[in-house]
Amino acid sequence: MIKLKNILKEEAPNDFVQFATKRLEGATKIAKDAKAKGGVAILTYHHFVVKLPVYKNAVEGKFDINEAKEKLQKYTDEFCSGQVQMDQIGFQRLVGLIEVYGELVIKYEGRLN
Hints:
This protein is an all-alpha fold. Helix content is 75%, strand content 0%. It is flat and about 35 Å long.
């Protein structure tokens, strides 16, 4: 049982850059697959493609926690304002940005295991 716990622990991201790297790999694959599939999957593509440059910056050590918090607040306010007119693609892109900044802020601050 101890060996199994150690194996599972090693596979889990244990630092910020490793976490961002895994998320970048996953988001890249999902965006690529969704774009190739087309149709309604294009919404998934738009949801994930906006995350790629944010993850890439984090992987490259260009993540600024204060800037990330400002962007998260900006996008959350935009979403919650009720005044933004958007289509499904705009919605998917906005929610994707909220997600990527939110999860990176949480991980950076050590609140995500």
